[in-house]
Amino acid sequence: MSVSKPSKGLDLAAITQARLTTGARGRALTTREMLHFALDHARARDAVLSDLDMPACADALSRAGLETQLSASAAGDRRAFVQRPDLGRRLPQDQADTLAALPPCDVALVLGDGLSAIAAQLNGPGFLIALAARLAAQGLTTSPVILARQARVALGDGIAHAMGAQTVVMALGERPGLSAADSLGVYITQAPQPKTPDSARNCISNIREAGLSVQDAAAEAEALILRMRRFGLSGVALAQRQALPED
C-alpha cells in the first residue's frame, strides 16, 4: 500500500499546536526550539503555581446575574495542594456546614483553580454563565457558583453532597502541557458522594480559545446533564445504559 507524502508547501505547524520534530536533525535542538521549549515550560509552571483571582471571577459572574460563594479544600496552600492531592479532594467540615446552609438546588456549579488557575480564570466564568442560562431554560435550579481554592476534581462531590444537589458540574484548570496551559476541564457527576469513583464522571476537556469554545462546551454539558437526570446515572454506567435499546 502506498502512502501519499505531504506536499512541500504544507506547513504542519499551522494546523497543530503540538511540538513537532521536523527539519534538520543533529545532536541538539536549535536555539529557537530550545527557547520555545523554555517559554512553554515557564507558562506551564505559572499555570500550576498561580492563584485564581477570586474577586475578578466573582465580578464577571455577578455581572451576568450569578451569585458566588467562596470555599476551599483541606490543602491550606499551593504547595500542599501540589504535594498532597488527597487534601485537594477533601472538603473540611466547616466548609461543608457553610454550604449546607445554602438553598437546595438541582445542579451544583463549582469553579476551581485545579492545575491551571490561568485556564479557570480565562474560560471558567464564560462557560458557567452559558451553562447556567441553558439549565434555567430547562427549568433546573442551580447553586451559586462555588469558587473553590486548591481544588481537585473530587472536591466537587463533597460540595454538592453538602448542598444536597443531585448533579454537580466541576469546572477547573486542566494539567498544563507544553503546548497548552489554558485548557479548562469540566467533570459532571450524577448523585455525587464523597467517595464517588472517577468512572462515575463524564468529562469535557480542552475548553479554550484554540480548542472547544465555552458555548459549545455548555451545550455538551447541558445535553449530558439532561441524560444523567433522565437515567439517574453518569460516567461508564451512563454510557452502558445509552447503548441499550429504548424501552
Please tag this protein with its features.
9 helices, 6-stranded mixed β-sheet, Rossmann fold, 247 residues, 6 strands, alpha/beta
Structure, explained:
- The chain is α/β, with parallel strands linked by helices.
- It has one domain (61-242): Rossmann fold.
- 41% of the residues lie in helices and 16% in strands.
- The chain has helices spanning 31-49, 54-63, 78-83, 85-88, 93-100, 117-137, 155-163, 214-231, 236-242; strands spanning 68-72, 107-114, 145-149, 167-173, 184-190, 201-207.
- Strands 1-3-2-4-5-6 form a 6-stranded mixed sheet, with helices on both faces.
Layout: helices, strands, pairs:
Elements: H1 31-49, H2 54-63, E1 68-72, H3 78-83, H4 85-88, H5 93-100, E2 107-114, H6 117-137, E3 145-149, H7 155-163, E4 167-173, E5 184-190, E6 201-207, H8 214-231, H9 236-242
Parallel strand pairs: 1-3, 2-3, 2-4
Antiparallel strand pairs: 4-5, 5-6
Helix pairs in contact: 2-6, 5-7, 6-8
